[in-house]
Design a protein that fits this description.
three-stranded antiparallel beta sheet; disordered N terminus; globular; 35% helix; 380 residues; alpha/beta
């Protein structure tokens, strides 16, 4: 997770502030260094986590602290010739411009010719996406690229870029991961299958069952751990996860099977929620079954915010072909997809999500009768 601390502070007073967005970086600059800080440069970087799943996208803003000696060669940092307050004010104006554009896009009325009438839009709606979601995506595509809904290749390339996923292999799966979801979402199957896969790859793996509801689940965990060769443990009190945190460092991967969201142990403000939701050392995955009606998942969207989730894991993918409903989650939640599970304990597939393959499934490319080439309408 991004830190508010500068990543570099050499003797000339130049520091680099990293944050998830330009707005956050600007706020941290003002908070930590004041309005007179001199902005030198900014860039977006993508970092692969050394011991975790996926990538972290950050904005790095290079600044010179108030009162610091300037470099003798102003050409080295052209922005150094600009007074600090003016540089920061310029950054603030740019942020305000971006936020205004985003607000205008969100409030823009639907176009007179609905993009949902294009063949590609109809395909997405038929595959499970809501009409409003498709209209929103096509409006964003048009605003960001200047192209119309009839430009199918450009839209699909843009959609793949904006379909967030882990996009790494099993070689990048390390660290501590907690999985939460509604009853019957396929969470435990996914956790046990992932543990067996990771142990088979040579990772020292631990599964923690948090507050198991019955002895049946305990026996199931014991049998699965014995068969998969990984370690397993039960935590009967929410406080035990925090107490065991220091002992987790001896494992390459720790997978926590949390109780269903409706369980008392998962209450917001309770000891488990207070500790885990703010713990940057854990990846928090919300598990959603593909065969669920996404329109009825408003409470799960709230859980994403309450638990500060990092990822969406999709289970029970063998029970539905309406993959385009995942676009609804891309719009409403915006979290990257981590794992995909299709009845993995009974021979189904368990895989790490990749944007390209997700797009193929959204379009039905892996389904019988898929027609890859749609007629292209005139560009709007």
């Amino acid at each position: 997770m991004a830190s508010s601390s500068p990543s570099r502070q050499p003797s000339d007073g130049v520091v680099v502030v990293a944050a998830p967005s330009l707005q956050d970086a600007y706020r941290r600059i003002r908070r930590d260094y004041g309005d007179q800080t001199e902005v030198l440069d900014s860039r977006t970087v993508s970092r692969r986590e050394a011991r975790g799943l996926g990538r972290e996208r950050l904005v790095e803003v290079t600044v010179r602290l108030p009162g610091a000696r300037r470099a003798p060669d102003p050409a080295r940092h052209p922005a150094a010739a600009v007074p600090g307050a003016a540089a920061v004010d310029g950054l603030e104006r740019e942020i305000a411009r971006i936020e205004t554009l985003v607000a205008e896009l969100a409030d823009a009325p639907a176009p007179a010719s609905s993009p949902a009438r294009s063949p590609l839009a109809e395909l997405l709606v038929d595959a499970g996406a809501r009409t409003g979601t498709v209209d929103h995506l096509l409006a964003r595509f048009g605003a960001e690229t200047g192209r119309g809904p009839g430009d199918r290749p450009a839209f699909l390339a843009w959609l793949e870029e904006n379909l967030p996923a882990s996009n790494c292999g099993w070689d990048g799966f390390y660290g501590c991961h907690a999985f939460l979801g509604a009853p019957g979402c396929g969470r435990t199957d996914l956790v046990l299958a992932a543990a067996a896969r990771l142990q088979d790859l040579g990772r020292r793996t631990l599964v923690l069952a948090m507050c198991p509801p019955d002895e049946g689940l305990i026996r199931r965990l014991q049998a699965a751990a014995a068969q998969g060769g990984y370690d397993a443990a039960l935590l009967r009190r929410p406080e035990q996860l925090e107490e065991a945190a220091e002992q987790l460092a001896g494992y390459d991967v720790v997978l926590v099977d949390l109780p269903p969201l409706a369980a008392p142990e998962m209450a917001e403000g309770g000891p488990l929620h207070r500790w885990l939701a703010a713990n940057g050392g854990f990846h928090r995955h919300l598990v959603l079954p593909l065969d669920a009606d996404m329109a009825d998942q408003a409470d799960l969207v709230q859980a994403v915010r309450a638990w500060n989730c990092d990822w969406l894991a999709v289970a029970r993918t063998d029970r539905s072909r309406r993959w385009a409903k995942l676009l609804d989650l891309t719009v409403t939640v915006g979290l990257p997809f981590s794992l995909l599970a299709a009845d993995p304990l009974r021979g189904g597939q368990l895989e790490i999500a990749a944007s390209g393959r997700l797009l193929d499934r959204v379009l039905g490319a892996e389904a019988p009768g898929f027609v890859p080439d749609l007629p292209v309408t005139a560009q709007a």
